[in-house]
Amino acid sequence: MKIAMIGGGYVGLVSGACFAALGTEVAIVESDPARLQALRQGRIPIYEPGLTELVAEGVSKGHLSFGDNLRAAVSGADAVFIAVGTPTRRGDGHADLSFVYAAAEQVAKCLDGYTVIVTKSTVPVGTGRRIASIIQHVAPGADVDVASNPEFLREGSAIRDFMQPDRVVIGCTSPRAQSVLGQLYSPLAAQPDQILYTGVETAELIKYAANSFLAMKVTFINEMADLCEKLGANVKEVAHAIGMDARIGPRFLQPGPGFGGSCFPKDTLALVRIAQEAGAPSRLIEAVVAVNDARKASMSARVIAACGGTVRGRTIAVLGLTFKPDTDDMRDSPAVPIVARLVEDGAIVKVFDPQGMDQARPMLPSGTIYASSTEAALDGVDAVVIVTEWDVFKALDPQAMLKLMSGRVVVDLRNVFDPIVMAAQGFTYHGIGITSR
After folding, report:
1. Of 85, 106, 99, nearest in space to 12 by CA
2. 110 tagged catalytic
3. Is the pLDDT score of 435 beyond 80?
4. CA distances from 226 to 105, 245, 294, 339 (A)
5. Using one digit for the tens of pLDDT, what is the confidence trace for 150-209?
6. Which of 18, 110, 263, 307 is flagged as catalytic?
7. Which of 3, 116, 298, 400 has the smallest number of CB atoms closer than 10 Å to its CB?
8. What global pTM score does this model have?
């Protein structure tokens, strides 16, 4: 089979490389000249474990190519995937679909036979119908079907998620399109019911519903963590116990500084707007958005309180900048408002992240010190704040930390350390949802 992937960003690149690994001929179309040049030279512009090797393998076998010639990519393709960005639109919280609609219009001009046009981007309900209208207007009589195929890729484990999916959702109404996409995904379906066929609108909503539900779990356990601190309970034990209930499950029950990244913030906000416009407002998700925004803003206050009520003149290390480990994604990272507030309040802030340093520079305030290593970040600081739970931070030796630091304050926003061990070493330890009682 042959497919074209419009967009060489995170979703398009990972999906294209994985399809190529399954033997599909994949042409990735990228309009950004700098990104295209990097891809052609084997330089992957994003960090995702295993992706560099997978792309190199696909190119070497002739299954994966990169270019900016849309007509050549679309010609003879069984399916064309639209995998361009859908950022939050300024002012109203809706998803910005300008890139999606522009791609659909350009694709329509290049069609030369039966093709399935597939939205891989996360798009609001009704986008598929709008794409079909655009194609009909630009290329009347074109032999096409429009389908929705939402992605469920977690940054840091995206290749595994693609190759070993919990489910593949295909939204289409045409048996012909179902046959094409079913054949494309057949190597990934260990069980026949792993491929779920739905209507287009249903598939479009599934992605938003899934991300919003997971965001709600994160927000719930964060609120339980705050309650545990007031009552003298231990949120880690609460999370473990409720997670043993098969109806709840243990995943996404790790308390922290609030969710960030490319999906949860924009998708929850988009679902709020979709529901409001449909006349069926989602009060739960509205609360999730509000609570999460407030939580990220409040994390710096925790650090200031742990430092005795003021950070002016204090030197503080912030370990972890990306919104989660195993990615270089800084979008909506809790680290950004934390560092900004600490600098604003007069702290000397040293930061370190294994992958996110370059991405963080334009987002953090001037005066931020960028350390070359964990050890350099800890050297001589009065306090350390753990924002992202990278393995390198989990493996830190408390005794080695003692030798490097001038102070003893540790604000662990991911609960990576054992409070008893840290207290025994002489640290003033502050976790999330854990008290000293």
Report:
1. 85
2. no
3. no
4. 49, 22, 13, 22
5. 999 999 999 999 999 999 999 999 999 999 999 999 999 777 788 999 999 999 999 999
6. 263
7. 400
8. 0.91
**One-letter-per-residue 3-state SS of 301-335:** HHHHHHCCCCCCCCEEEEECCCCCCCCCCCCCCCH
Structural domains in the chain?
Answer: 2-198 (3.40.50.720), 208-289 (1.10.1040.10), 298-430 (3.40.50.720)
Question: What is the residue type of 257?
Answer: P
Instruction: Look up residue 291 and give its two tokens.
Output: 């609570």
Residue pointed to by tokens 């036979």 = 113
Whole-Å CA distances, 279 to 171, 200, 273, 400: 24, 20, 10, 57
